[in-house]
Specification:
6 strands, alpha/beta, 15% strand, 8 helices, 6-stranded mixed sheet
Length: 215
């Protein structure tokens, strides 16, 4: 069986002018998980990221060479969803307060899944379709060890889909996924199974606890 490891990108720059880049901590998280994989003797035969800067920077700081990109591994556009929900007038508290932001995002994604958001740039069906297309591409090249760097919503959807879980489970999982955590799947031409979820072997309590973040 082949192994597909999907890493969530390192901490992004929440609140900055450009969210789509790693913070200094994000680079350290990425270096730590890359070293942990090498220490375990796990070196990829193939690497894939989405097209987002924070995903590419994570792979680079992990110390692995850039390979393919597939836009199916990009995160859904949460700013677009919030703007669509609030008709372009997103409350300041939603934009500026982390707790309110993520609580509102959860509610918004549930509405998106139920087709209750008017005119989003991407429908829920299109999102799940592109994630599945990316998964098939990652598993179709004959590589035995495939490393993907993606984002929380995509990872949540991959896990939920692999378990045939209800749509809402994607967001429940999404909000649990730690930066640079490892989610492992095993696959054949006909099968795709979850093997490990949200693991952080590089974040050891009392040693590297400062590396633990969720956004």
């Amino acid at each position: 069986m082949g192994e597909l490891l999907v890493i969530r990108h390192g901490q992004a720059s929440f609140g900055a002018d450009n969210y789509d880049k790693l913070s200094e901590l994000g680079h350290r998280q990425s270096a730590a998980v890359g070293q942990a994989l090498r220490d375990m003797g796990w070196v990829p035969d193939r690497t894939i990221t989405g097209t987002l800067i924070r995903q590419k920077e994570t792979l680079a700081s992990m110390g692995f060479e850039a390979g393919d990109t597939h836009a199916g591994f990009n995160e859904y556009d949460f700013n677009d969803l919030l703007n669509a929900r609030y008709k372009g007038n997103v409350p300041d508290l939603v934009k500026g307060d982390r707790k309110t932001h993520f609580r509102t995002l959860r509610e918004t994604v549930f509405e998106w899944q139920a087709d209750q958001i008017e005119d989003p740039s991407e429908t829920w069906g299109n999102f799940t379709g592109r994630v599945e297309a990316a998964r098939q591409t990652a598993c179709a090249t004959g590589a035995e060890r495939v490393l993907v760097v993606s984002s929380g919503g995509v990872i949540g959807q991959l896990v939920a889909s692999s378990l045939s879980a209800p749509d809402k489970m994607m967001m429940t999982l999404n909000l649990q996924i730690k930066n640079t955590s490892v989610t492992k799947f095993v696959f054949t031409e006909l099968a795709f199974f979850l093997h490990e979820f949200n693991a952080t072997p590089h974040i050891v309590p009392d040693v590297a606890a400062e590396l633990l973040t969720y956004s």
